[in-house]
């Protein structure tokens, strides 16, 4: 009899044709770290992160070749408009894509996102004027709602003990994509000039000097699109108020356990009523989104300004780097970021927690960015060493903060609200990120024009 009372009072109910229930059954049998799922999420996120910042190393030269800027100092302003178009498009549609993911599933939104990268990133590389570049970037952002859906997917595909690792994988792939993307752009742009023995000036890569990095990323996204067709869907599709199968029961075991059953029902009713609250009144969610937005504004502005500053002439306070030099710096940063996320971050997060990690990263970023103004005084090996160390530290701090905020956002809501919550976060974040390149580019151009003014002393 004693053994009989130790058995679970209620049995889990799985619906035969529900893809979410099939995933829950799979998780019950899962043992060890789910490497296959981690790799799947990693390549999906990487495919959508690569095109976001891959243009920044060559954007300065692309705008110059469009002959739309009247003065060299105005190039940064036009570059900001192109960089902001992607985020503006994403801001307008992220909530819609989140609602689609909650209604139809995560998988269709993920596939649509990768297809969008294949089409519009390729067209961006073939841009012949400024407005074509702006429109293709806008459509690339507005039709790609992948990131919000994949963050929800990363929580639902793993057992609870591996959810932090899943979200860490999302932010790692995202951060590496934002670093490796510019590296690819730097190495592969203008191939007819850099690699004349391979690419002729009369070839398509000679006539469209910025097509090769876009084509490489689009081909990778095409492979990912084919791969995602075999991803399992995690959304529950049955009429139990979209509750997880872990909260579904098929029968009571015995009438003698009626009091225990009542307590469990009351607990579930409390969960349901809490899950029905408006996302806007969910303070843990909204507070993490607010911090995420402010940091995204800063991070996107940094991403654009760093590349513009690095390739600008020394007479304007830049480093006179080539696109290849910028790509080399960002490649080193990307490799260091991968090592950090796979080895150190999970250990630090377990000790300090996501909130404390985000706080420390935010505080340390401030003095680090202030030091960049002094880097231009160096040259040669010293310059390379200092700029690489600063870039590595900046990207490590950024990805640590983003990962912590991802964890907080997805733990603040139930499954049936997770897609909409991530869509809301993407909308707000995209608005701030849209302001980042435009504001950063305009501020950068303004600063270059005022180097001899009293507010910006001459640094030549």
TrEMBL record:
Domain (Major facilitator superfamily (MFS) profile) spans: 37-460
Task: Give a yes or no for keyword tRNA processing in this entry.
Answer: no
The membrane-topology field of this record reads: Multi-pass membrane protein
Name its GO BP terms in alphabetical order: regulation of stomatal closure
Record-linked InterPro entries? MFS, MFS_dom, MFS_trans_sf
Q: PROSITE patterns under this entry?
A: MFS
Which residue ranges traverse the bilayer? 39-63, 75-97, 109-128, 134-153, 165-188, 208-231, 289-309, 329-348, 360-379, 385-408
Official protein name in the record = Protein ZINC INDUCED FACILITATOR-LIKE 1-like isoform X3
Ranked from the top, the taxonomy reads: Eukaryota, Viridiplantae, Streptophyta, Embryophyta, Tracheophyta
The gene coding this protein: LOC111310400
């Amino acid at each position: 009899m004693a053994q009989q009372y130790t058995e679970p009072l209620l049995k889990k109910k799985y619906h035969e044709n529900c893809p979410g229930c099939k995933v829950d059954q799979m998780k019950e049998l899962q043992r060890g770290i789910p490497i296959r799922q981690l790799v799947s999420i990693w390549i999906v996120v990487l495919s959508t992160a690569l095109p976001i910042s891959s243009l920044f190393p060559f954007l300065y030269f692309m705008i110059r070749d469009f002959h739309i800027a009247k003065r060299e100092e105005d190039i940064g302003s036009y570059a900001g408009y192109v960089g902001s178009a992607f985020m503006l498009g994403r801001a307008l549609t992220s909530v819609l894509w989140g609602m689609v993911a909650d209604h139809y599933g995560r998988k269709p939104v993920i596939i649509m996102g990768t297809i969008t990268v294949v089409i519009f990133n390729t067209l961006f590389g073939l841009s012949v004027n400024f407005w074509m570049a702006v429109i293709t970037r806008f459509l690339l952002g507005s039709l790609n709602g992948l990131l919000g859906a994949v963050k929800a997917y990363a929580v639902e595909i793993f057992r609870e003990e591996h959810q932090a690792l899943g979200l860490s994988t999302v932010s790692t792939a995202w951060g590496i994509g934002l670093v490796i993307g510019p590296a690819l752009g730097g190495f592969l742009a203008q191939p007819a000039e850099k690699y004349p023995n391979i690419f002729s000036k009369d070839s398509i890569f000679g006539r469209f000097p910025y097509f090769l990095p876009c084509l490489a990323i689009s081909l990778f996204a095409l492979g990912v699109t084919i791969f995602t067709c075999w991803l399992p869907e995690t959304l529950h599709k049955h009429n139990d108020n979209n509750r997880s199968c872990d909260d579904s029961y098929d029968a009571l075991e015995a009438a003698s356990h009626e009091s225990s059953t009542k307590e469990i029902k009351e607990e579930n009713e409390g969960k349901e009523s809490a899950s029905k609250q408006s996302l806007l009144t969910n303070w843990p969610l909204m507070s993490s989104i607010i911090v995420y937005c402010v940091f995204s504004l800063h991070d996107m502005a940094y991403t654009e300004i760093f590349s513009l500053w690095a390739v600008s002439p020394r007479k304007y306070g830049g480093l006179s780097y080539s696109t290849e030099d910028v790509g080399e710096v960002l490649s080193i940063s990307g490799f260091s970021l991968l090592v950090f996320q796979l080895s150190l971050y999970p250990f630090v997060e377990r000790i300090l927690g996501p909130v404390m990690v985000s706080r420390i990263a935010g505080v340390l970023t401030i003095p680090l960015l202030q030091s960049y103004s002094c880097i231009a005084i160096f040259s040669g090996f010293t310059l390379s060493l200092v700029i690489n160390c600063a870039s590595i530290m900046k990207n490590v701090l950024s990805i640590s903060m983003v990962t912590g905020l991802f964890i907080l956002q997805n733990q603040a809501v139930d499954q049936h609200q997770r897609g909409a919550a991530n869509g809301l976060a993407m909308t707000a974040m995209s608005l701030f990120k849209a302001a980042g390149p435009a504001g950063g580019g305009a501020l950068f151009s303004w600063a270059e024009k005022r180097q001899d003014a009293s507010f910006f002393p001459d640094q030549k």
